Amino acid sequence: MxxxxxxxxxxxxFLLKIKAIKINLQSPYTxxxxxxxxxxxxxxxxxxxxxxxxxxxxxxxxxxxxxxxDINLVAGVATGGIAHGALVAQDLGLPFAYVRSxxxxxxxxxxxxxxxxxxxxxxxxxxxxxxxxxxxxAVNAIKxxxxxxxxxxxxxxxxxxxxxxxxxxxxxxxxALSDYEHLLQQAIADNYIREEDMFTxxxxxxxxxEWGQ
Length: 213
What we know:
The structure is a single chain. Helix content is 39%, strand content 22%. It contains seven helices and ten strands. The protein has a six-stranded mixed sheet with strand order 7-6-5-8-9-10.
């Protein structure tokens, strides 16, 4: 996962400020997977803040321009990556499509909404990377449609080893605007957490599936 320090701290500051990321050691959150976590991330909240939404779009466009050259299409991962992906596509003057988490249960039973053509070069936009499962499923769906995935961009990643391994296995280069390590440093600097909280927060990230049980 490739991350720039300056961007990562700015993004973390924004996410904490608007409460898109919440940290609560006393009353841990329960993820959809059943994991207990002292942190919860909802990047959809960024869409309600024009300045932050613009920052995300600009950073994504810059990463694409610097690292991927000419691409033919931007694809978002449902649901969190749809709006940000569409904004990036609009900025670049490119077509947009999005990938569902599963095939539509009626009608044409589409997995991909929009048009992806054989041989297109695609960049995928995701809002959050946790275990990497949904991100890689989207990447594979695009490959199955005959396109080439140049890389995947996300707003935030927890930096779990399992996700890193999945991206390596899929031969997919990934970039994130911020990650867990930068978040903790920013949270300390801005007094969202105390120094004594760091041990618990770092311990959770090492083994999140067992933490809190």
